[in-house]
From TrEMBL:
InterPro entries per the UniProt record, alphabetical: Glyco_trans_2-like, Nucleotide-diphossugar_trans
Source organism: Pyrococcus horikoshii (strain ATCC 700860 / DSM 12428 / JCM 9974 / NBRC 100139 / OT-3)
Protein name: Glycosyltransferase 2-like domain-containing protein
MF-aspect GO terms: glycosyltransferase activity
Keyword terms: Glycosyltransferase, Transferase
Pfam families: Glycos_transf_2
CDD domains on file: GT_2_like_b
Superkingdom assignment: Archaea
Family membership noted in the UniProt record: Belongs to the glycosyltransferase 2 family.
């Protein structure tokens, strides 16, 4: 049995090094780590070189990707751990990064693949506690508990899928009481913060959907995984997620005595993918198409009304949000489109 980790990173070298250190120090040592860098501009390759994860720097420019291999050693038992560093030369988002990482780990023959972003830090015994349950009947994925740095459970990362109520979230977070169990808990949905996925399942369902770019790619993949087996939460296996949720970059507006937060125009492009991808999933999987289209129309109308009331660049914003819904309904995945609509193709 060979186990590899896949870490997707972009411009967070400090967090990446903390994640890699946690992986290196697992009490059940990994066989390999795939680092998918897509493509960082903050000195990530230099940091990896300095810390001994890679032995050479990637070229400054390339057509698609550049890969180098190295070997580090587990401080637990001095076991060699292969390190594959993949430098992408095009921004393909988190979805594209996970696609690339899972594909490469699968093609290298690893039996189980452990997925996470660079802002995840598994506790040293996280993997050891997961592998105890690899032989559960029908198991195709095992998921640790996700906690915030403050210690509380981050519930949105594990849950049950609800195809009756697509908006605003297709997944219902798992009740906190489930985390108190000493036994595995079967779930429908696992985010890409720490799932350990079986090779046999990947062979059938394929790789994460790279076209999503960001947002809801883990939902889509969970739906596919559930068609071939069972996903289990392992409550006593823990991974820390250092997600940085800030409202400081948002614009505050007052309306009827309430504070309304609005997204600045130069940051707006990132919101397109979540709306498009959730709409796409709803069109395919919603149990009641009437309710789905009714709620979609209602959400669109509310969004347009808020733009008219609160925002600048009103025409562009309305065109932008309308396009996100329509592209989801049509299944169109042009990931350069949001910037073309908002900024004429110029990067903000």
């Amino acid at each position: 049995m060979k186990i590899s980790a896949v870490v997707v990173t972009f411009n967070r070298k400090k967090l990446l090094l903390e994640c890699l250190n946690a992986l290196r120090n697992q009490t059940y040592p990994l066989d390999a780590i795939f680092i998918i860098d897509g493509p960082s501009t903050d000195g990530t390759p230099e940091a990896l070189l300095e810390c001994g994860y890679i032995k050479e720097l990637p070229p400054k420019k390339g057509n698609w990707s550049w890969e180098t291999k190295n070997v580090i050693y587990s401080p637990i038992n001095n076991k060699p751990i292969k390190v594959y560093y993949v430098r992408l030369y095009k921004d393909v988002g988190g979805s594209g990064g996970f696609y690339e990482g899972v594909k490469r780990a699968y093609e290298e023959g690893y039996n189980w693949i452990w997925l996470m972003d660079d802002d995840a830090e598994p506790r040293e015994d996280a993997l050891e506690k997961l592998i105890r349950y690899m032989n559960l009947p029908g198991v195709i994925a095992l998921a640790p508990t996700v906690i915030r740095p403050t210690g509380e459970i981050s519930k949105p990362h594990r849950g049950i899928l609800c195809f009756k109520k697509i908006f605003p979230m297709i997944q219902i977070p798992l009740d906190e009481s489930k985390y108190k169990s000493n036994q595995p808990v079967q779930i429908d949905f696992v985010s890409f913060v720490g799932p350990l996925i079986k090779r046999d399942a990947i062979k059938i369902v394929g790789f994460p959907k790279k076209e999503f770019f960001i947002h809801h790619d883990d939902v889509e993949y969970s739906i596919r995984l559930r068609t071939v087996g069972k996903i289990y939460l392992i409550p006593d296996s823990v991974i820390i997620h250092k997600e940085n949720i800030k409202k400081t970059s948002l614009i505050k507006k007052r309306f009827l005595g309430k504070t309304i937060y609005r997204i600045p125009y130069n940051k707006l492009w990132k919101t397109y993918y979540g709306t498009r991808n959730l709409t796409y999933l709803g069109r395919i999987y919603s149990k009641s198409k009437f309710k789905f289209y009714f709620k979609l129309l209602k959400r669109w109308a509310v969004s347009v009304g808020a733009i008219i009331l609160f925002d600048d660049h009103k025409i562009k914003r309305i065109q932008f949000i309308t396009s996100a819904y329509l592209d989801g309904l049509r299944g169109k995945f042009d990931n350069e489109k949001p910037k073309r609509i908002l900024y004429g193709g110029k990067k903000e």
